[in-house]
Amino acid sequence: MPAPPDAVARLRLIRSDNIGPVTYFQLLARFGSAQAAIDAIPDLAARGGGRAPRLAPAAQVEREIETVARLGARHLFLGQSLYPALLAELESAPPALIAKGDFSLLDRPAVAVVGARNASAAACRFARMLAQGLGDAGQVVVSGLARGIDTAAHDGALATGTIAVIAGGIDICYPPENEERQRAIAARGLLLAEQPPGTEPRARHFPYRNRIIAGLAQGTVVVEAAPKSGSLITARHATEFGREVMAVPGSPLDPRAQGCNLLIREGATLVQTAEDVIEALSPIHPRPFRQRRLDYGGGPVPADIDAETRRRVTGLLGPTPVPVDELLRQSGATPAAVHTVLLELELAGRLERHAGGRVSLA
């Protein structure tokens, strides 16, 4: 059975060079469909002063769709009904996820539980008990299937509902010792991956995975972590997303507890039980856990930006990241004009996007 044309076009955009989450969404918002955006890209890149990005071949993404189906998984596209609602709120939400398992878990409230890979035995036991308590209270536990705290959290919540976000392809088991655990989560919980099948996890993939973990959950609990660990990156993402950050205190003599103690000093909620976590999340107003279909607002394409506006916006950019809001203030141009210029520059390979809505020249 041939793949749906819209799914093929969406994946071609997602798997193409110079097209990140923000650019993907802006292209669909402006042109109304992925295929219309693909048709417009060469002209947009030329206006940005560069070559059009290499677009992923249709045959390549058709093979991906076939592989995903053969693995018993499916694609979840941003803007469609199954896509996780809280994750869809983010500017950096992945345009597509590959999912395998129990999709009903996406309808339930979730808490992320993360921590050190080289965690102490006591911390792993605590994470397992915490996850079990959260599951008994109706929460889905989200983690990254890493060694240590992540593994303990998944084990504690496997019976009640857990989501594992992995850094590589949905068919790649990492770390190797978690292969059976990953299969168990696919059968009884839910596996999520941003990378296409067959992708071996690389260092650059883990920060992207961490943003998904934080984005899926109402709050993130850090059980044990060093000051510069990936778990603190997840906590920072949660803060940026406006979600609750919680931490379990530890001994000042244990380097693995320093990150948690630092988070608490900086304002994270101190938690010692599952009840503490539920109480910390209770002030949050209930949100729908199924995303509404997004309106990409097809219709006429805005007129070309005049040369003076383009020169004014581009002239404000440099190698130092600057907030887009600052470009709006200083350029005096309309939001539509500024975003159009940035879109053209990015497609031309001349713009980089950074966390916090900042941009810089590549």
Question: Major sheet: size, sense and barrel closure?
Answer: 9 strands, mixed
CATH architecture classification name of the largest domain: 3-Layer(aba) Sandwich
> What is the mean predicted local confidence, pLDDT?
91
| Helix content, binned percent | 40-55%
Q: Secondary-structure element sequence?
A: HHHHEHEEHEHEHEHEHEHEHHEHHEE
Cα-atom radius of gyration: 21 Å
Number of domains: 2
Poorly predicted spans? 287-301
Structural class comes to alpha/beta
Distance between the termini: 42 Å
CATH class of the largest domain: Alpha Beta
Q: Counting H and I runs of at least 4 residues, what is the number of helices? A: 15
The CATH topology of the largest domain: Rossmann fold
Question: Number of DSSP strands?
Answer: 12
Shape: globular
Question: Beta fraction of the residues?
Answer: 5-15%
Cross-sheet strand order for the largest sheet: 1-2-6-5-4-3-7-8-9
Short account of what is shown:
By secondary structure, the chain is α/β, with parallel strands linked by helices.
